[in-house]
Design brief:
By secondary structure, the protein is of the alpha/beta class. Helices cover 41% and strands 18% of the residues. Strands 1, 2, 3, 4, 5, 13, 14 and 15 form an eight-stranded mixed sheet that branches. Strands 6-7-8-9-10 form a five-stranded parallel sheet. A two-stranded parallel sheet has the order 11-12. A hairpin with a 4-residue loop joins strand 1 and strand 2. Helix 12 packs across helix 16 (340-363). The longest helix is centred in the last third of the chain and has 24 residues, at 340-363. The two termini are 36 Å apart.
Length: 475
Amino acid sequence: MRAKGHLRATSILLAAALATLLPAAVALGAQWRDHHAVAITDVTIIDVESGRAIGPRTVLVEDGTIVSLDVPQAVRIPAWAQRIDGRGRFLIPGLTDMHIHLFNLSSRRPPNDWSFALYIANGITGVRDMRSDAASMLQVKRWRAAVDRGKLIAPHVLASGIAVHGRSPDDAAAQVDAAADAGTDFIKVFSDVPAPQWRAILAEAHVRSLPVVGHVPAGVALLEAAKMGQRTDEHLTQAYEACSSIEARMLDDRQGLDGDALASRSSSQEAEVLSAFDQATCLRVAKTLANTGQAQVPTLVLADEDALARAATPSADPRWQLLRADEQKRWRAFLAGYTKDDAILAQRRWPIARRIVSSMHQAGVPIMAGTDSPMPGVYPGFSLHEELQQLVQSGLTPLEALRAATLEPARFLHIDKTVGTVAVGKRADLVLLDADPTKDIRNTERIHAVLLGGRLLRRADLDGLIARSPPAKTP
């Protein structure tokens, strides 16, 4: 399945190389002219909410909003509208990656704005940034304003959050208050947060009306986290333990630990936890989890058994050249420390991750698509299509996988009145595909055009974006 994705990536790069031969005004200028209307004619609409394919329809967009979805003869298209032929094509909502990183706070490198073009070229019009700080939140606001004004080709940053740890419960609560004052959209927690601080974070975040999301801490049970109100679990953290026969013993062994010591103890236990996986326990946990409303962002591209093996020779991947130079350096450093034992553990983790997601899906647990890009081996934009394929391999139908990257994120973020489906009155963040994604989820890669807030980017425009990304050197 990955091989076809690589062939698609290669073809995009070849097209991009041709685009670089054109003057910039030809390759990128058209979509930024002052057009206020776009008409997609005779297209089939994939209604991700009802599950129906509706068509043929003509979709009329004016001033960034969908104003009409009707049979072609009933739509009056303004003479000045840009037209795009939708015959034999399929229209879906813009995709959302619910777990990415735009900032490099630990390494203090510049933001990952080099990735913007890759997201848009892959039909990803919305992202959730998973770790910022007060200064970063100001940058997010600038990006949002620039995208809304049509001055920046980038996905909408639908939410961005500040991570909180705390030296003590009181300090953790104070950090929540500081994050709230800085304008964070949510509070992020990591695996190394000790249970007392985590409880203080939940309590203070509730006072400040902020959701808490992220890793379920290594000293906390998955179901406890869900019942106490942590809104998401990322990367299936603590789900492996919850689906094992030894969860209680593992958690007892981690009590009293903090920070690196807690993370290290949890990591050292992973092989034992995987060996103790129990399907019946997992199904029972999933049914209880479904009643809590906690959503899962499994980021299966991280658990995939061949992801890091493939990344071990990154320069062989045609997408390698799309990474900024400092990101290439980071990947190389990470992969240099990747051991044979790590590879063996990844091989054991991947099938269990799929079984956990399958159990949760069967029980009705909300699942959203995220990638953790740009983690080594996880290419911004491209990796979301791989994640959708992984979700289908884990038991979701192609339609359900589409929902995980469209309607489910919109509902979770309480913006489903604005985005998430193709409907009149919603923002025109749309992707036009050359084949039906409900028949084969790999068809989400067959992108003919993207509308970003109503601005049309045709295939040549998207290839031109890739051709100009990233800058040769770190700014």
